[in-house]
Amino acid sequence: MRRVALVLAALLAGAAAGADTLTLTLSGAIDRALAEGTASKIAALGVEEARIAAARAKSALNPRVDAVVSDVNQSLNLKTFGLTFPGVPAIVPPFNVFDAHVAASMNVIDLAARRRVAAARQQVRVSESEREQSDADVAAAVA
Fold this sequence. Notes:
Blueprint: H1 2-19, H2 26-36, H3 38-59, E1 64-77, E2 91-105, H4 111-142
Antiparallel strand pairs: 1-2
Helix pairs in contact: 2-3, 2-4, 3-4
């Protein structure tokens, strides 16, 4: 009787497990492993990191523009500067000073920056190759 109960429990467990069973083809399993696998995600993040580093290295070659605007309301005590004029009060009443300027700069020849850009671009190619190799390894392991 106990044997029958165990067999019946095993059959019921198998039927319940069969309802949750996922049927995959080989290509479907490989695609799923590449889309959801940790190794593939890490390799893709490595490529993205290399692309960001290349963009950062390239930004050193871009022109730079700085703009500054300031508006100040101030008053001066001329005695603090050692200035005294007859008929002129020692404290100048409040006045406004407005300043705006733009500065632009660009490295015309920066061989080190150009080499850093070339190295970063090469690192992108290396990362892409590593990702392709990782994908091939994942596909081989799944197969």
